[in-house]
Design brief:
Elements lengths: L1 E4 L16 H13 L7 E8 L4 H6 L9 E8 L5 E7 L4 E8 L11 H12 L2 H9 L8 E7 L13 E8 L11 E10 L4 E7 L15 H4 L20 E3 L2 E4 L2 E8 L3 E11 L12 E17 L11 E2 L23 E10 L5 E22 L6 E17 L2 E10 L4 E9 L4 E2 L8 E5 L2 E4 L1 E11 L6 E10 L12 E8 L16 E10 L5 E8 L12 H5 L7 E5 L21 H5 L10 E11 L9 E12 L16
Parallel strand pairs: 1-16
Antiparallel strand pairs: 2-3, 3-4, 4-5, 6-7, 7-8, 8-9, 10-11, 11-12, 12-13, 13-14, 14-15, 14-24, 16-17, 17-18, 18-19, 19-20, 20-31, 21-23, 22-23, 24-30, 25-26, 25-27, 27-28, 28-31, 29-30
The structure holds cobalt (II) ion.
Cobalt (II) ion binds next to strand 24.
């Protein structure tokens, strides 16, 4: 395995979408301190690049001065007050300060240091300690207090408080994985500002499951199998991609790598070369044709099904509440990619607004992917086959018990795929007659509650230019009758999605439903609009009741597709401050404007995910489960764009 590290140590910013540098984070901190906005009690929950708009990026020419702005969400730990600050690094001034009302506006995301605080807070609470001792647990050093986002349930006394809810797990010794031993029937509601337990829900002593789940211990797993022979990938001439600063080119694809503390990996300015537009005799390069201005997974929510008093509140917005990007793994110690790997480091701000570098945060490599096309001809006897390759750009983030991988795949034929991988350890409770309705027994007496992992991709589409439109494509059944005497006919039904109020769509596998994003300006050689088609997996959307707290807060997840008019301020589908927000923000709010979509700059929001009924095989560590979607060119090229791929690997 060969690896190359990305070396963006250079502090010069040349492009408006260049990632925030460590130097810029330092300058932002100095600015905020100078304006009296950061201080001993004020913590920086988020500090990110305020991305320029599509129009600003379009206008930028090489050599232009770049206007750099940052957005910070600050929390005063002494009062619970929070604000969002916009500052210009170019003009060296704070440009906007918005103070939030914690009772109505939601809370800044949960910070890593608050995870640690929770452990101290519950262990200092006499009621919690006594509840533990009633359960025969006295060695609190072997109790893991699990900090969980509180949601918004209008519970007595919670309005405006900064809260976490805490479930506990026991360890038999420090190396024993706690998830095997839930201390069930007990949940502490913690106020993070007052630093105390404000409510203790104790539904009674339950037995703590005893069987261990130590998947990393040979005593538990047995000796490793010895049946594997080495399988090595070699690329003697190196990879087929090039990286210049953060701009990647590979097999006609061109894009810019971005990294956001909330969303993680972002692909900017994704375009593909059209081989048919190049002229090999003159050496003219094929024209780059835009596909998307920006692509990311902008939110996700994990709602749990158990309605009992200890768990009804369990739903986690891993991006908006926990900042998925900030929890990115450093792949220094273990990367699941093979071959020639290019790594990108991620530079983010910590709670002191100081730069923190996660080395090897994003992994990029190319993969053989089986057969691209093949034919053995009956008449000519010709036998041709071509192999397919894909470029893989990925990262992994760990949020508590779960680990999520996000893999973007670019193919030579113009297809784009996003695959989300869920692995890690199941969330657990005690399995009894009550829990049986909402969970699977995965070890003796150990329950894994049913839940969903619902992701929302944000796709700022630019199929062959800025002006796009969207159609819903279904199969169309045709009744027997005149012109269809034998009843074999079928066709395609096309519905134009003209405005935002029409855009909340549900996938339908039985109708072969897809969504087509087409240019309203460019046409192919048949005179028809060039387009890409989004193929959804069509798994269940949010299963909670429409008037439930989580459905109000995760409105995006009630439909597979939304389309909105592009607005740079509309970033996250569940809104800006998701933590403890009562709901209604983001897509439900934006689409009420019912803006016209046809021939406009548009953003697609696609919800996909896994509805997870855990299996015994998911314990004690879960084999990767996947979900995602595919974007495929559809009349974008005039013919198969991979005819020039030579035989061989
Ligand atoms: Co799951």
């Amino acid at each position: 395995m060969t690896t190359v590290r990305s070396d963006r140590t250079s502090e010069d910013v040349l492009h408006p979408l260049d990632r925030l540098t460590a130097g810029e984070i330092d300058r932002a901190r100095v600015l905020l301190e100078g304006a009296g906005l950061l201080g001993p009690t004020v913590r920086c929950a988020v500090l990110a690049l305020e991305e320029p708009s599509r129009a600003q990026v379009r206008r930028h020419r090489s050599g232009d001065e770049v206007d750099r702005r940052v957005r910070a969400v600050l929390l005063d730990r002494s009062t619970g007050g929070s604000r969002t600050v916009l500052a210009s690094l170019t003009r060296e001034r704070v440009e906007e300060v918005v103070k939030h009302d914690p009772a109505t506006d939601g809370q800044p995301p949960i910070m890593l240091e608050e995870f640690e605080a929770v452990d101290e807070i519950v262990k200092a609470d006499p009621g919690w300690v006594e509840a533990m001792s009633r359960r025969g647990i006295t060695d609190l050093s072997l109790v893991a207090a699990c900090p969980l986002s509180a949601g918004s349930f209008d519970l007595r006394g919670e309005r405006g408080r900064r809260m976490l809810r805490v479930l506990a797990f026991q360890q038999h010794r420090p190396s024993d994985h706690p998830w095997a031993h839930p201390v069930d029937g007990l949940v502490a509601y913690v106020d993070l500002i007052e630093r105390r337990v404000v409510e203790l829900v104790d539904t009674g002593v339950m037995p703590v499951p005893a069987e261990e789940g130590n998947y990393d211990d040979p005593e538990f797993t047995g000796p490793p199998r010895t049946t594997r022979r080495p399988l090595e990938i070699t690329q003697p001439e190196g990879p087929s991609f090039t990286v210049e600063r953060d701009v990647v080119t590979w097999e006609g694809w061109r894009f810019r790598v971005g990294f956001d503390p909330r969303e993680g990996l972002v692909l900017h300015e994704l375009s593909i070369a059209d081989p048919s537009t190049g002229d090999p005799s003159t050496g003219d390069r094929a024209r780059q044709r835009p596909v998307a201005h920006r692509a990311s997974v902008a939110e996700m929510v994990v709602p749990y099904a158990d309605p009992g008093p200890v768990r009804f509140w369990q739903n986690y917005f891993d991006s908006g509440e926990y900042l998925l990007g900030q929890q990115v793994n450093s792949l220094e110690r273990g990367c699941d990619c093979v071959g020639h790997i290019h790594y990108f480091d991620a530079v983010m701000a910590d709670a002191d607004a100081r730069p923190r570098t996660v080395s090897n945060a994003v992994c990029m490599h190319e993969e053989d992917d089986g057969v691209a096309w093949k034919h053995t001809d009956l008449f000519t006897g010709a036998a041709q086959t071509r192999r397919r390759r894909r470029l893989v750009i990925s990262f992994f983030a760990t949020i508590g018990n779960y680990d999520y991988g996000f893999y973007w795949y670019l193919y030579q034929d113009g297809a784009i795929e996003l695959e989300a991988k869920a692995t890690g350890v199941l969330f657990t409770g005690v399995y009894d007659d009550r829990a049986a309705e909402w969970s699977t027994e995965v070890a003796p007496g150990l329950a894994a509650p049913y839940h969903q992992h619902l992701f929302c991709a944000r796709l700022d589409m630019t199929v062959d230019g800025e002006r796009n439109a969207v159609e819903e494509l279904d199969v169309r059944r045709v009744p027997r009758g005149e012109g269809n005497e034998h009843g074999n006919a079928f066709g395609r039904a096309v519905t134009r999605i003209r405005s935002e109020s029409e855009s909340g769509r549900i996938a339908d596998g039985a109708a072969g439903r897809k969504w087509r994003i087409l240019s309203t300006e460019a046409t192919n050689r048949f005179g028809r609009p060039t387009s890409y088609v989004l193929t959804p997996e069509g798994q269940p959307t949010l299963l909670a009741e429409p008037d439930s707290s989580v459905a109000r807060r995760a409105g995006f997840a009630t439909r597979h597709l939304w389309v909105t008019r592009y607005d740079p301020a509309e970033r996250y589908p569940a809104g800006e401050l998701v933590n403890q927000h009562a709901g209604g923000a983001g897509i439900p709010e934006w689409t009420r404007a019912d803006r016209d979509l046809d021939g406009q700059e548009i953003t697609l929001w696609h919800t996909f995910g896994v509805t997870h009924f855990p299996r015994p095989e998911d314990w004690p560590v879960m084999p990767v489960d996947t979900c995602g979607f595919r974007l495929t060119p559809h009349g974008f090229f005039d013919r198969n764009p991979t005819l020039d791929v030579p035989p061989g690997s």
